[in-house]
Amino acid sequence: MNILFIDSGLPMPDRASADLRMFTILKLLAGQGHQCHYFVINYALLSKKVAPADLTRYRTSLEELGVQVHTQNLDRALLSYDFDVIYFKYFYPAEKRFILSDCFSLMPE
Question: What pLDDT, on the 0 to 100 scale, is given for residue 90?
Fold first, then answer.
């Protein structure tokens, strides 16, 4: 399966249990051969809150699992890949930023 994960930040499993859960889900799915993509909704804001070395470490940990990390242009990602599943870590960013409607309009099936 081709799976897109959408979140407001990168999973930081050493900082929060929800991030540990997300990282574990990604590890399991990527390990089973699924194509996993991780889209960070507001990477610019995240880069102001998290040290550059930590951002690199968290991003690299995903890439080492085979997860493609996307930080810009959700529309391009939606149009470039044929996703079977879109997984929102939390619903509120999807609803608040109109991302959910973008997903439906760009990926109607």
Answer: 81
